[in-house]
Amino acid sequence: MKNLSLVVLTLGIATYFTSCKEVKQEIAEKQKEALPNIVFIISDDQAWTDYGFMGHEHIETPNLDKLANESLTFSRGYVPTSLCAPSLASMITGVYPRNHMVLGNDRVLPGDDKKGKPAWTLPWRASNYVPVVENFKKLNTLPKMLKKKGYLSFQTGKWWLGNYSNGGFDYGMTHGDPDRGGRHGDYGLEIGRKGMDTLYNYIDLALEKKKPFFMWYAPFLPHSPHNPPDSLLQKYLPKAPTEYVAKYWAMCEWFDITCGELMDYIDKKGQTENTIFVYVCDNGWVQNENDGAYNPISKQAPYDYGLRTPIMYKWKGKIAPGMDTLSLTSSLDMVPTVLDLLGLESSEELDGINILDETERNNREAVFGEIYNHDFNTIVEGLKYRMVMTNPYKLIVPDPKNRPNEKIQLYNIFKDPFEQVNLVDERPEVVDDLRNKLEASWNPKL
């Protein structure tokens, strides 16, 4: 009897611990399931005006209009710089270009002979960029931070910093090998333009592994080449002043269509209520009417046509939808906002705020920006402009060393959203106040 009791007791203890283990595993699985997926949708070269919900008379963006209606949408969003490589690097790190040091798209050194050609076409471009990539690999990125919560991270679309793994992604489309044409996305640039299957496969993989996922969807849209499907081009040709403009407008709708396909797939998989969507554009674009180039008031410029973007946050049932036309927000807020939603903290200081926190939002006095040469080397040699945006004023300060013939500009963005009337002589007290704010915020790694 004693032996029998011992066997029963042993079995009971084993059953108890097995049950406890199973319960813990079940709880862990439920906790994983409860973590929301995160999707960054990033437009490429699109003006803040060029959406249906932002009031464009001709461009149709029904899917983004729907997203805007279901999100807390900020119409006065900004990126810190109006060029893609530094802008995207800020989105994934949450810090200004002066802190992540991806200042431009290409790096030139003293003595480099460009011979009138763009840096990216020359053989030394890739070797010059190596230190930029190596420095970036040391930085804390959102995918790296999300690993603490068990996330799988996927890269699709544009990515300037070599292989996707350099940003902490687990999987991605961009190999980044310069010997195979790697520069700013390579195979990643096919997403959207050549279908969405790779992205769908990543989502399926995360669901199969029962892990939450972070998706970086930064397609090469509506970026040039402006070669939209003919059906879209024919739709806009009668409405546009020229074919160049019609092509750009059609590209904006093509991008919108792909966004709809992405959101529909997530809904089909039953993940809409468990997914945080964040929308932003990397920098602006104003299409020239008589050629395929952009107007210099947009991309690489300090004006709102280059810097301003709607920014949206959607989490069905968790984030109350609304259109905020007054609050200042920046793409730098994307990382801290997502981290706060997940109860995570960054090990390093971030330059943005949790924009969903009403107190932080209301206490914000300004957001800042900085623009460097497309072909850069150092902050001192490459800085072109610094900007400070407040309610209602915006100050543009050209660098005296690199832009010696340009003057400071001040605009009342509320009354003059297209920056036509320079108020610098009329409001010197505002200029002084904003310059003080700008200098107080300036802490570059020289």
TrEMBL record:
CDD domains: SGSH. It comes from the Bacteria. Its cofactor is Ca(2+). SUPFAM superfamilies: Alkaline phosphatase-like. One of its GO terms (molecular function) is metal ion binding. Keywords: Calcium, Hydrolase, Metal-binding, Signal. Residues 36-343 form the Sulfatase N-terminal domain. InterPro entries: Alkaline_phosphatase_core_sf, Sulfatase, Sulfatase_N. Belongs to the sulfatase family. This is Uncharacterized sulfatase. The lineage of its organism: Bacteria, Pseudomonadati, Bacteroidota, Flavobacteriia, Flavobacteriales.
